[in-house]
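Researcher: Sequence recovery benchmark, item below. Answer with residues only.
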């Protein structure tokens, strides 16, 4: 297992290096002065220009420039935002908690609803129930996320006026950020309106999280159903049924834990798609996360924000993908057997 973890760590470093290389080449083709694209300083002084040349080795060859670029970016120096003239790393870290909160709630909804429906679709003998569940998942998978988000906003936000359609919280509530997670910060706040603020933050989360949860929900249902159908035919399940164990006990203690293994693996494979959907959802609902921040930077041609946003999002996806793969192999005995056999 140690050799496997070392290989995964090497994979992370190698992928990061390739990603930085792509960003370095892309920066060369920005239609602005290279020093400006690297630092984001609008009106640099002579001293700042000299510092930029030394930091990024602009007078050196391509290899020296790439090494300097990689060292600078991976050390956390992402330059200044051209629009706000604030450090990009500061804006990125401020936007990340909002994206994490939205993604976590969406993943929680998809899992809590998708797994039971997948189990029901696999165990139900009623063809109408099975076909209805699969039709719902196929429809959810086919609906464009931007159309779904706009439709939910129109129905529940504009026409019925049940739920807010933009932002994270009503501006009337003054909640000091502690963790950056609004649901947590409202409860940690010493304000007398913290419960009302928590409720308001929860209401703001409903529409964007449901919109974002639809795609992983459909995947969870279909993968759970397929895995359960396969597992329920295994000899150890038949043996448990022969011993007279209750169906609920068999499903919860023996079948479902094994069925969740492929669900975990497939969720790791779709992290990139999930992140791209999250960016669209954040723009639709004016959610102040990394997605809307990055899209705003693209519209404003904020080259340092584009570089920093792409680097930050990509590194998070790579890290989470490798982490899920490690957890999958640690949790799945068959994967460990194949792993050790390969070694």
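Model:
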């Amino acid at each position: 297992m140690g050799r496997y973890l070392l290989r995964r760590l090497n994979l992370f470093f190698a992928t990061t290096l390739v990603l930085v290389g792509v960003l370095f080449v892309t920066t060369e083709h920005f239609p602005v002065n290279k020093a400006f694209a690297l630092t984001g300083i609008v009106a640099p002084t002579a001293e700042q220009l000299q510092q930029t040349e030394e930091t990024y080795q602009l007078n050196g060859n391509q290899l020296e420039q790439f090494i300097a670029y990689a060292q600078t970016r991976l050390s956390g120096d992402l330059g200044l935002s051209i629009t706000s003239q604030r450090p990009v790393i500061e804006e990125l870290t401020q936007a990340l908690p909002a994206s994490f909160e939205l993604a976590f709630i969406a993943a929680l909804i998809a899992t809590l609803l998708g797994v039971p429906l997948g189990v029901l679709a696999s165990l139900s003998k009623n063809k109408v129930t099975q076909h209805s569940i699969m039709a719902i998942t196929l429809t959810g998978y086919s609906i464009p996320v931007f159309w779904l988000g706009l439709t939910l906003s129109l129905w529940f936000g504009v026409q019925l006026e049940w739920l807010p359609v933009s932002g994270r919280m009503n501006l009337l509530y003054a909640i000091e950020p502690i963790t950056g997670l609004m649901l947590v910060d409202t409860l940690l706040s010493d304000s007398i309106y913290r419960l009302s603020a928590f409720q308001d933050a929860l209401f703001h989360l409903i529409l964007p999280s449901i919109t974002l949860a639809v795609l992983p929900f459909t995947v969870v249902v279909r993968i759970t159903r397929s895995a359960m159908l396969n597992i329920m035919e295994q000899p150890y399940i038949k043996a448990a049924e022969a011993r007279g164990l209750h169906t609920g006990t068999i499903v919860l203690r023996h079948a479902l834990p094994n069925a969740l293994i492929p669900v975990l693996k497939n969720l790791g494979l779709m992290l990139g798609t999930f992140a791209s959907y999250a960016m669209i959802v954040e723009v639709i609902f004016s959610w102040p996360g990394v997605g809307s921040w990055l899209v705003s930077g693209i519209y404003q041609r904020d080259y340092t924000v584009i570089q920093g946003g792409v680097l930050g999002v990509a590194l998070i996806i790579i890290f989470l993908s490798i982490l899920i793969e490690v957890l999958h192999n640690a949790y799945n005995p068959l994967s460990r057997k194949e792993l050790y056999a390969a070694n």
